[in-house]
Amino acid sequence: MDDGYSIHMWFMGEDQKAKLHRLPASSIQPTSKNRVWKIKDQTNPMAVALTWKGSWLGAWWNLELIGEYISRRPDLPEHDFAILKWLRVPILHSTLFSTVKKAILRSPCRFIKTWLLDSYDTFPDGIKLHNNILGSDSVIRCFLWSDFPVAYSKDAIVLFEQLDRKTNRENFDINVLARLSDISPALLWKGIEYYLKKRPKTSVPLIYFFTCAQVGLFSNASKKQLKIRLRILEKQVLNTSRIDEIIRLYMILLKIEKGQLPQEDRVELLKLGQTLAGRKYLSARMGLYWLDLSRM
């Protein structure tokens, strides 16, 4: 193709691994028109994307084939997670959701690294990554907010630590906790535990500063001011009288590391995570819980 346009095809190779390949101009049939291009290729593609000078313009997907490919992979590599995002495959679609979720729960840090941090080890030459895809963080929460596999918590914490050390040397621990709180409350809980063990002498002030930040206070605010601000935020987010009871039960389950919330309560917790105010409120509640345990 000319004028900077090109077509990329995502297909499964003979080695059963997915490949993203730029089609040569000879693959476009002569009978193609300006708005309809016919591809001369025998490969059964999982997806086809149109680009201009390497930038994604649009794509077509075969969701059934993509689902079959993902379900056959015991461990989805980072490269495939990155391609799914670049192609903008609708992974929340009912055809793919359960299959993709299983793959994500087996490798949550790869998913976070590619979908949230836009960090890839390799990517095809000539392809430009999306500057920003609005709602990517919401997609991540749909899969991980209520179900983050805690066995991978330390890996996720270290991943964010490595990133924030490079980009923000001051208060990077608070930034790490904020990032964790945007993905999953269980991950935030593990993050607080991690810092309590790693830095027993400085972790309590860290948790206090983080909790203050969640409710819009400076770090020198008193605990009384913190609780007042939390009650104000509570009025904004508690759409049901049961949510307070759900949060209390959830923190108990996290503490004892046994059991999980009933499905209807998990739905309410997910609703809380769908708003910024709800996430900040839940994070502040968790921070205050740990501060009370530390008797600060």
TL;DR of this structure?
The chain is of the alpha+beta class.
Shape: elongated
Based on DSSP secondary structure assignment, what is the total number of beta strands?
4
Whole-number count of domains:
2
Structural class: alpha+beta
Note poorly predicted spans.
none
Strand content range: 5-15%
Work out the helix count: 13
**What proportion of the residues is helical, as a percent range?**
40-55%
Order of strands in the sheet with the most strands?
2-1-3-4
Average pLDDT works out at: 89
- Please state the CA-atom Rg, rounded to the nearest Å: 23 Å
What is the H/E string?
A: EEEEHHHHHHHHHHHHH
Largest sheet properties: 4 strands, antiparallel
**How far apart are the first and last residues' alpha carbons, in Å?**
66 Å
Keywords:
alpha+beta, 2 domains, single chain, 4 strands, four-stranded antiparallel beta sheet, 296 residues, 13 helices
Describe the structure.
This protein is of the alpha+beta class and 296 residues long. It has two domains: 5-144, no CATH class; 150-293, no CATH class. It has helices spanning 63-72, 78-86, 97-106, 108-115, 136-144, 153-167, 172-183, 185-198, 203-214, 223-237, 242-256, 263-273, 276-293; strands spanning 5-12, 18-22, 47-52, 55-61. The protein has a four-stranded antiparallel β-sheet, with helices on one face. Strand 3 and strand 4 (55-61) form a beta hairpin. The protein is elongated, with a radius of gyration of 23 Å. The mean pLDDT is 89.
